[in-house]
Design goal:
4-stranded mixed sheet; about 280 residues; 2 domains; binds iron/sulfur cluster; about 40% helix; alpha/beta
Length: about 280
C-alpha cells in the first residue's frame, strides 16, 4: 500500500490553478498560430493576432488569459492501492483550488445557490469533482477551468440510434452555429457519445482535455473528428465571430457503451481559453 499525504494534493492543485489561468497549452497555441496563417480577412487576422498577443502578455506577466477564470472541474483517478493520510482527499482538492485562486488573484466566479441567493463563495470553490478508482498505486488528477461564455452554449440531445453519423454531425454543427460569437471562438469542441443522458455530458467535457495533436485512437472517430472540424470551419464564424476560416481549433470525441434504444450526444463548447492540466503523483 502506497501512502500519499493529501497536503501534496493541495499543493499540486494550487499550482495547477495558477498555471491554467496564465499559460495556454502548446497544442492550442500551435493551432492558433496555424489559424493566423490561414486567415485572409483583415478583421479576422487582427482578431487572431490579438489573441496571440494576449497569450504572450499573459505568459510573460503571469496574468490571466481571460477575466473569466472559470469554474474548476476535477477528475481524480486514484489507484486502489493508495492510502491517503492527513485528511480528506476531496477537501484537499477544494483547498488547492481555494489557495490557487486567492493567491493568484483570479476571479471568484462561483455562487453557492444557483437560483435564489446567488451569493459568491468568494474563493471559487466548490469545484466539481469526479472520482474514479483505478488499479495500482498511481494518482492522476485532471483539471479544467471553464468559462461560462462557452459553457452556456453547450447542449445535449438524446439522438435515436437510427439517426446515425449524420444525426451526430447535424447536432454538433447546429450547436457550434448557435454558439457563434457568444462562445469566444475559435472554439474547441468536446463531444460525448453514448453512456446515459448525464454521462454523455461528462464525456463531452472530458474530451476537451485531450491534446489537439492526438486524434481519437479509433480511426472511425478520428475521421469523424476531422470531418466535423472541416465542416465547422466552413461555417465561417471565425476568430471572435469576425467571419473567418478558424471557427474551431479542434473537435474531440469520447464514447461509451450505451443502451440499445438510444444514442445520447452531448456537445461541450469551449472557447480558445481551454484551460486544463494533468497532475501525476
Ligand atoms: S468564453 Fe472563454 S474567452 Fe470568452 S469570456 Fe468566457 S472564458 Fe473568456
Amino acid at each position: 500500500m502506497r501512502t500519499i499525504s493529501v497536503s501534496e494534493v493541495t499543493e499540486a492543485v494550487r499550482k495547477a490553478c495558477g498555471e491554467m489561468a496564465f499559460f495556454y497549452s502548446t497544442d492550442i497555441l500551435e493551432r492558433m498560430e496555424e489559424g493566423l496563417k490561414n486567415e485572409r480577412g483583415e478583421r479576422s487576422r487582427a482578431a487572431m493576432d490579438m489573441l496571440l498577443q494576449n497569450a504572450a502578455i499573459a505568459r510573460e506577466e503571469q496574468i490571466p488569459i481571460c477575466q473569466d477564470t472559470g469554474l474548476v472541474t476535477v477528475w481524480i483517478h486514484a489507484g486502489q492501492e493508495i492510502s491517503f493520510t492527513d485528511g480528506s482527499l476531496k477537501e484537499a482538492v477544494q483547498e488547492g483550488v481555494r489557495r490557487g485562486y486567492e493567491e493568484n488573484f483570479l476571479r471568484a466566479s462561483v455562487v453557492k445557490d444557483p437560483l435564489y441567493e446567488r451569493v459568491n463563495t468568494r474563493d471559487n470553490t466548490p469545484a466539481v469533482i469526479y472520482c474514479d478508482i483505478t488499479e495500482g498505486d498511481r494518482l492522476v488528477i485532471e483539471l479544467t477551468a471553464k468559462g461560462f461564455g462557452s459553457e452556456n452554449m453547450s447542449r445535449q440531445k438524446m439522438l435515436k440510434p437510427s439517426e446515425g453519423e449524420q444525426g451526430v454531425k447535424d447536432f454538433v454543427l447546429e450547436t457550434i452555429r448557435l454558439a457563434g460569437p457568444n462562445a469566444c471562438p475559435p472554439m474547441i469542441v468536446g463531444v460525448g457519445l453514448g453512456g446515459t443522458f448525464d454521462y454523455s455530458t461528462v464525456l463531452a467535457k472530458h474530451a476537451l482535455l485531450r491534446d489537439l495533436s492526438q486524434p481519437n485512437p479509433d480511426e472511425r472517430y478520428a475521421k469523424l473528428e476531422e470531418e466535423l472540424k472541416e465542416a465547422a470551419n466552413q461555417l465561417m464564424i471565425g476568430p471572435m465571430g469576425l467571419h473567418g476560416n478558424t471557427t474551431v481549433l479542434g473537435i474531440r470525441i469520447e464514447t461509451a457503451p450505451t443502451h440499445i434504444a438510444g444514442m445520447p450526444c452531448a456537445v461541450n463548447i469551449c472557447c480558445h481559453a481551454c484551460r486544463h492540466r494533468e497532475i501525476r503523483l
